[in-house]
C-alpha cells in the first residue's frame, strides 16, 4: 500500500498504538475518488430514505406521523410515540434548512402539521410540562414514562418556537439537577443513586441545538454545556479502559449488572492493553483497502489481504483474552463531545474524546466473527442479561458513521476515515433495503434480518436520515478542502 507511514502513536496511558498511513500522489487522488463515491452513495440513500417516510408516514387526517411501518411502508399500528413525533419534525426542519433539494413545500407543511400535533396533544395535563410517551392516533394519552426523553424530543421539535422550547428546557434542567419528583418516580431505599449517560448526552445535544444560531441562548446555557460534558466524561472508568452506561451520582462505578452494563462497548476489565498472549507489547490498529484491523506485536506488518476483519489466525475470540462489546451511546456521545470541544476550542479534549469515545468502543465493539457492532455487553465478560445483546441494530451503526467521519474531519487521522469506510460498508450492505427503501432496524448477529419492520415504537425517521445528512455535509466539506 502506498503512502507515507507516520510514527506509531500511543494514548495517554501508553496502552496501544495505531499504524497510520498518509496518502500521497496517486493515493491521494484515489482517496478523493473514494470520498466522492461515498458522497454520491450517501446522497442517493438519503433521498430514498426521505421518500419512504414522506410516502408512508404522514397522517393526513389527524396530523403527526405513523411510525409503525412494515417493510413496504404499510401501517401495522396507528399509535403515535412522542419521541418519534418530535424527532421527525426535527429531521424535516433540518433537511429543509440545510439542503436546497429538500426545500419543498410538502416537507415544510408536514413538519408544521407534526409540530401542531405535538403542541395540541403531547402534554398530559397542561399547563404541566410532563409529556406522554404514547398517544392514540387522534392524540389521547396512553402511556407516560418517568423519564425526561419525551420532553427532550418535544424540545427538538419546538426549536423554532423559542419560548416553548426554553420553558420545557428549564423544566427538564430542574428535574435533572434539582428536584426529580415531578417525573413521578417514587424514592425506593434499595435503589442505587445512579446516573445514566443518556441524560447528560441528551441535554448536551439540546444545548447545542438551542444555541446554534442564538448567542443569547448559547450564553444562557453555557454553564449547562460544560456541566453536561463533565458528566459524560465521568463515565470513563477503570483507568480509562471502559465507558460505562451507568455510574453513581458522584462518578463512581456501581456494583452488579447495572454497573457493568455497556451500551457503548469497551474492553474486558483488567486489561491494561490489547495484548497477544505471552507478550507485553500492545496491539496496533492498521488498515488496508478501506478495512481496519487489529494486529498483535509479532504480526508481519506488511500488506494484508483485502477484506480482512477481526483478528484472523490469532486465536482471540469472544471467550479469549479479549471480550468484545457493542458500540452505541459511547460513539454518539463521542460526536456530541467533539462538537463541544469545537465550541470550546479545546484540542486536548478532542484528542481525549477520539481516544476514549471513538477508538476504544470501536476496537472492542466490532464483532470479529460477523462484522458489525454488538448491541450490549458486560464489561467483565459475563453473560449479558439483555436478550438482544448480540443483535446488530441500526442506530449504533448510524452513530458510528457520524462519529468516525467527524473524528477524521476534526483530526485528519486517516485511521478514522478507514474505520468510517468499514462501518459504512457493513451498514449499507446489511441494513438498507434496496427493494422498498429505508433501513431494516434489527439484525441477527450474523447480519441476517431479524425483523422486517421499518419502524416501530423506537425506530422512526431520525437516526438514519440524520446520519446520512450529516455524513453528506462532512464528505462535501472534505472534498472542498
From TrEMBL:
Keywords: Isomerase. GO terms for molecular function: N-acylglucosamine 2-epimerase activity. Pathway: Amino-sugar metabolism; N-acetylneuraminate degradation. One of its GO terms (biological process) is carbohydrate metabolic process. It comes from Cnephaeus nilssonii. It catalyses: an N-acyl-D-glucosamine = an N-acyl-D-mannosamine. This is N-acylglucosamine 2-epimerase. Its EC number is 5.1.3.8. Homodimer. Forms a heterodimer with renin and inhibits its activity. The keyword Isomerase applies. Belongs to the N-acylglucosamine 2-epimerase family. Gene3D superfamilies: 1.50.10.10. It comes from the Eukaryota.
